[in-house]
Design brief:
The chain has 297 residues and is α+β, with helices and mostly antiparallel strands. The protein has one domain (16-289). Helices cover 39% and strands 11% of the residues. It is built from seven helices and seven strands; from the N terminus they run ααααββααβββαββ. It has helices at 14-74, 82-85, 90-105, 110-114, 145-158, 163-166, 227-238; strands at 117-121, 126-130, 172-175, 178-181, 190-195, 260-265, 283-284. Strand 1 and strand 2 (126-130) form a beta hairpin. Helix 1 packs across helix 3.
Length: 297
């Protein structure tokens, strides 16, 4: 029997196959792009959640340090030699004590975590000796500066006994410097005790009509240290900070010295360094203090 040519089954032509393959490839690209966007959004949300919890714990510790300094100042109960170093002015000593206690509770590098230094009053001779908290001796002098700051942050919060620190259950990991909190991209969350950025000196971070003020010295008393401020005090309490290069050069910045403690995520494609604190692509925890604000711009 001869089959009718019109009923013969036709196959796909090469052109048709190419068209179909092109359509399938386009759909695959769109699907992958959608997945990556969803995954990226999930990673950002997870990282912001982690940064927010860390920031809340830091806020609790900061408030405790300030309250302790205010209490000691009210009782004139300063560490040996500090009041004399501060020209016997309790207001200057109170601001100095806040800075020194913040350094002890929140070092950001191996150097800050392990260095003992002295502040010496010329005459009559009085010596205030700063001794770091020995709990930070676990921070190794290894790894990157960011990893060292991350290891310091982990110890600062997990060794604390306050309620906020006790609720932390964030992802952790190991680096050459020690145990660290990690973001959703599995990278260490760095930490800055003195985050100095242009945006912090304007609304909403500062709402005053004049220049912004140092949050650890709201009355501007540190200037009463005179030449000792830039020659000795500031280099010791800030000079070993891992991203201190982000501060204005020349010592204590004085007026306009608004800064905040912040946890820093490098984000999906960045490495957090001192030079990118103002980079809008990295995630800074202090931005989450505003309702609806993102940690990255």
């Amino acid at each position: 029997m001869i089959r009718n040519a019109q009923t013969r089954r036709r196959g796909f032509s090469l052109v048709e196959l190419i068209v179909v393959m092109g359509i399938l490839a386009t759909l695959a690209i769109l699907a992958v792009g959608t997945y990556n966007r969803l995954r990226g959004g999930q990673n950002e949300a997870a990282t912001e959640s982690t940064l927010s919890k860390l920031n809340n714990a830091m806020d609790v510790r900061y408030a405790q340090i300030v309250n302790d300094a205010n209490r000691d100042a009210a009782k004139d109960n300063f560490p040996t030699g500090l009041r004399e170093y501060c020209n016997n002015d309790p207001d200057i000593a109170r601001s100095a004590l806040v800075y020194l206690n913040l350094l002890k509770a929140f070092p950001t590098s191996h150097a800050e975590a392990t260095t003992t230094f002295q502040l010496v009053t010329p005459a009559p001779l009085k010596i205030y000796q700063f001794r770091p908290n020995t709990v930070f001796s676990a921070v190794a002098n290894a790894g990157t500066a960011e990893e060292q700051s991350a290891a310091c942050l982990y110890i600062a919060l997990t060794s604390s006994t306050d309620a906020a620190s006790g609720t932390l259950d964030q992802q952790t990991g190991q680096t050459a410097a020690g145990t660290v909190f990690r973001d959703a991209w599995n990278r260490p969350i760095a930490f800055s005790r003195l985050t100095y950025a242009t945006e912090l000196n304007s609304p909403p971070w500062y709402r005053g009509t004049g220049a912004s003020k140092d949050p650890a010295d709201p009355l501007g008393k540190l200037s009463g240290l005179g030449g000792k401020l830039n020659a000795e005090f500031w280099p010791n309490v800030a000079g070993r900070h891992w991203n201190y290069t982000g501060f204005p050069s020349g010592g204590y910045p004085g007026t306009g010295a608004n800064w905040v403690m912040t946890a820093i995520s490098a984000g999906p494609d960045k490495t957090a360094t001192a030079s990118v604190i103002s980079d809008p692509k990295i995630f800074l925890s202090y931005r989450l203090r505003r309702e609806g604000q993102k940690a990255g711009n």
